[in-house]
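In response to the reviewer comment on reproducibility (Comment 2.3), we provide here a single inverse folding case reported in full, input and output, so that an independent group could reproduce the run without further information from us. The structure tokens appear first.
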């Protein structure tokens, strides 16, 4: 049915490629392009389907992207490179008439700042070109927004309190490693916390607020309030929300390493002089940390990510918890990647499938919760991320 171009051959790109290849009735032609072509070739070898093509591209350069898009003529591009490339890829899509999907909002390289304004600014141009752009279609953002839309559609007249809870209870047996791109991950965690309450954004110090939350099949884990990008679109798209927060678990060992990394200046993102060269300490750190793609083999345990929601249905207060647990080992057996890459890559493939099937096809720039959640929820169950519901339980929040 459709030609798909995957940009990025990291942990998430590898999972997207596997899942796209598993759905040949939807995706008939596949090209994987990234900065390093050998990594794309390795993914094709692992999948074992020589019909998948590969290419080299620098996605920071619109001219290179335009050439690639004009050679391959994809129907949709799945952008799983880094957030820095979002705008160049969107620009190339507009120049060549290609639809767009990503899993993380644009970030400028020199400031760790997360907001949708840069990408929402493209809305009118995508509308006028008759092209669809689907933003933030990983797990969180992504499934977290679809879960919220599903809750609003089926279980609530009014969503009032939303807590997105993200637990990784896995153990990769390394002293310190991040589960996805270390540079992006450390930028996210070391910034101020922020949540929404009664129409205002409240800023906290990094990791200042935390509490133990109980995760299904895992138990209690200390969970830290972070700012996460989907909060911005969810409070806009569900204006009845009085409070929206995001929580993520971290172990003490992880936090101790993180504190040392910051204290010694290795989390800095400004270039410094080193032996006559300019280097960015956080980028150097990425080069010496374990590669997140290599964690899978010895990774045990599971992730548990969900939405805990309180609100009104038929005039009565109710609570609702919808979540998925994903086993790192099962993800590794299927795709060679650990659970965090898996939980991001599967929804990205499903989002592209929704577009190809015409279910999520609407000119403009959209966040996932603005589309019908039902067919997406159905595919989550079929494609490896089954979800579970708890009604009127104790949300602990
Ligand atoms: P990786 O660092 O493993 O992979 C990134 C890939 O993009 C690499 O193949 C890299 O190439 C390629 N790349 C980087 N810069 C360029 C460029 N200029 N041109 C072409 N290719 C480039 O990251 P992950 O796979 O862990 O993460 C991918 C994306 O997924 C990120 O945007 C991340 O924020 C997002 N994400 C979203 C989540 C969600 O739930 N929504 C959760 C986790 C991640 P090379 O190999 O040469 O470096």
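Designed residues, in position order:
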């Amino acid at each position: 049915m459709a030609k798909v171009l995957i940009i990025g051959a990291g942990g998430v790109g590898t999972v997207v490629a596997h899942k796209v290849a598993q759905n040949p009735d939807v995706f008939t032609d596949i090209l994987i392009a990234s900065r390093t072509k050998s990594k794309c070739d390795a993914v094709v070898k692992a999948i074992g389907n020589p019909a998948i093509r590969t290419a080299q591209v620098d996605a920071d350069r619109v001219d290179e992207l335009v050439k690639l898009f004009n050679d391959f003529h994809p129907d949709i591009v799945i952008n799983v490179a880094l957030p820095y490339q979002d705008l160049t890829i969107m620009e190339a899509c507009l120049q060549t008439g290609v639809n767009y999907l990503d899993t993380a909002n644009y970030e400028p390289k020199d400031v760790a700042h997360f907001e949708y304004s840069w990408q929402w600014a493209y809305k009118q141009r995508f509308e006028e070109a008759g092209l669809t752009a689907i933003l933030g279609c990983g797990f969180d953002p992504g499934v977290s927004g679809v879960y919220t839309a599903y809750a609003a559609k089926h279980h609530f007249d009014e969503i009032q309190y939303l807590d997105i809870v993200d637990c990784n209870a896995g153990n990769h047996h390394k002293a310190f490693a991040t589960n996805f791109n270390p540079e992006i991950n450390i930028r996210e965690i070391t910034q101020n916390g922020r949540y929404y309450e009664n129409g205002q954004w409240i800023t906290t110090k990094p990791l200042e607020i935390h509490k133990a939350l109980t995760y299904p099949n895992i138990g209690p884990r200390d969970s830290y309030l972070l700012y996460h990008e989907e909060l911005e679109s969810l409070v806009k798209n569900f204006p009845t929300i009085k409070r929206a927060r995001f929580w993520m678990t971290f172990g003490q060992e992880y936090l101790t390493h993180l504190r040392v990394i910051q204290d010694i200046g290795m989390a800095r993102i400004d270039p410094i002089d080193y032996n006559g060269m300019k280097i960015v300490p956080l980028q150097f750190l990425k080069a010496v940390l374990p590669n997140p793609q290599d964690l899978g083999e010895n990774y045990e345990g599971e992730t548990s990510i969900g939405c805990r929601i309180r609100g009104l249905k038929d005039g009565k207060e109710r609570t609702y918890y919808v979540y998925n647990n994903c086993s790192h080992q099962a993800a590794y057996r299927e795709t060679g990647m650990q659970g965090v890459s898996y939980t991001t890559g599967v929804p990205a493939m499903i989002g592209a499938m929704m577009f190809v099937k015409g279910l999520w096809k609407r000119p403009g720039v959209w966040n996932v919760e603005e589309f019908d959640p039902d067919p997406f929820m159905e595919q989550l169950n079929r494609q490896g991320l089954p979800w579970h519901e708890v009604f009127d339980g104790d949300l602990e929040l």
